[in-house]
Amino acid sequence: xxxxxxxxxxxxxxxxxxxxxxxxxxxxxxxxxxxxxxxxxxxxxxxxxxxxxxxxxxxxxxxxxxxxxxxxxxxxxxxxxxxxxxxxxxxxxxxxxxxxxxxxxxxxxxxxxxxxxxxxxxxxxxxxxxxxxxxxxxxxxxxxxxxxxxxxxxxxxxxxxxxxxxxxxxxxxxxxxxxxxxxxxxxxxxxxxxxxxxxxxxxxxxxxxxxxxxxxxxxxxxxxxxxxxxxxxxxxxxxxxxxxxxxxxxxxxxxxxxxxxxxxxxxxxxxxxxxxxxxxxxxxxxxxxxxxxxxxxxxxxxxxxxxxxxxxxxxxxxxxxxxxxxxxxxxxxxxxxxxxxx
Length: 342
Hints:
18% strand
């Protein structure tokens, strides 16, 4: 597992001499879970309320200062952009899936991507997109059903969006379909250890105060499954790596407020409709007791999975046929002797 690294958002006052305390004081309101719409089938195969996720992202995009909660999205968007820059080519047409306000595009230029199509489920994110020198086209569409023809894009990128997709295998297949041969998909999504401190604190508080608990953090994919899902969708030459980012906050309420400001509030169908005040206060105390830092802050860990997959093309390098090797692995111990003989 990758070592956790700290991230901070500059420009906010630091209270009581504590380090990296960013969130404004306040409480996130408890969301009330609506009944599923007709035709929806909540459960293991459809865990998320996509209509609610659209409302959450639209609300977050219309906040007076939406950039205050973008520190994590900007950091991960930069990580995706770095992986694009590692590929020594120019992409004529690229797709940013779940683009938000342009967290990847702001780190790239027209020498890398000549034209970019930005897609998001929430229309309000396009009202205040970040400036970029790349010509862009904005499309409001659901990541679960892409409205593009086969073999359209040279590059597809996605940052912190696919973890809210109900059918991830289908989403990967559609991404593979809209890519041109020899096109590449580069994405990032939250991993299973994300917000484990918040999850554990809320569960312990509910067990203590209410005699049981319900999920308050959405389910995430495991890294062991990610490569298999990409391979099954048709991608080859796969790369999957992990990163952990630890963010420090004044307390539990600020963690939840910033998640709401990111548009990352829980939208699972089985989420609890109400968080009782006593339970929330107990969870905040447990969070501080179990995970609190010496300066009075509390950490929130975000695990990030970065993935790269290519669509097959005849020009791509192919693995050698089995049995075609001319050197045995047993000769590796003799490599120094063989080199000196030459």
